[in-house]
Fold this protein.
Amino acid sequence: MNSAISAIDDTDRALVHALQLAPRASWERLAPVLGARPETLARRWERLTSAGEAWITGLGLRTGALSPCMAWVEVMCEPGASPAVGAALVEDAHTMGVEHTTGGRELLVFVAVPDLHTLYRYLYFRVQLIPGVTGTRSSMVTAVHIAPDRWRLDQLTPAQSDLLTGRTRRAAGPLVPTAGVVAAMPMEDRLLVLALAGDARRTVASLARESGMSESTVRRRLARLEAGQSLRYSCSMASALSGWPVSATLWAEVPEYEVAGCAAVASGLRETRTCMSVSGPWNFIISARLRSVEGLSRYTADLSRRLPGLRITDTAVALHVRKSEAQELDQLGRRLRTVRPDIWQDPAPHA
């Protein structure tokens, strides 16, 4: 048995689940929920993060009041070229995710840029000029129904989750994002947001020192960005250690008038990690975390049974997730490093 895997226990997974619910909560706040001393939790988290087995990412990709321009990009490569192409794409600030997949494409890449013109420059003056790339196919994201930061390990009991979040438990139902006013991101907030990409639990004092702001200014800006959902936190655990080691992507067609209902039903399935509307020959993309490859057929069957109007047109299993939410990963899904997600930089400065 892999020694790294055997060292992970249910308390570690419960800690990750708690931080998925409250990413910047103090150890003192988490201690009574998890039944452990604050210093014990701090030591566990230090061990997990030092080994790349868990981490918390902070992402804020807005440009002013505008959402980022996002796309799923399928990359086709010459025989034997996909490892080198994947390594090149991992280095780009504009790629949030890079996967080697099964199916009709060698690589599946999730891209975020400020606007359509930057996406054009990235695709035609960067991606398509990488040696070994033979073609690309892009699907623009037109709506995000479920974002990856909503996926949970579900290690805590409902009572523990409610205690941590302060919620009163109501009748169970699908978790669907609610509409609200999203805060704009001024240009001066970008450096603050980028500083949280590798470690979203950084202290206000360290952020103030790095940014040159006062601590009160940092607190005020963080509170505004968090409240307006311009800054989102995502706590992750290495896939091989989480109990959900398989990543899969599904392309589907859904009647436009059924999109909201399909998103609500898909979000109620345990495996669903993201759900987005896209442009192209299909209009729906779902990504899922599975306990095994065999679980893909059960998941697609469950989706089809619950959603008669949804027609799955293609599926792909990730052979190797090289990058996720701006983090470079190894073959077990452990974090190697953060690739600074400065999506506002020119992706092809010499073009």
Summary: The two ends are 49 Å apart (CA to CA). The longest helix spans residues 38-50. The longest strand covers residues 133-146. Residues 1-6, 168-180 have pLDDT under 50 and may be disordered.
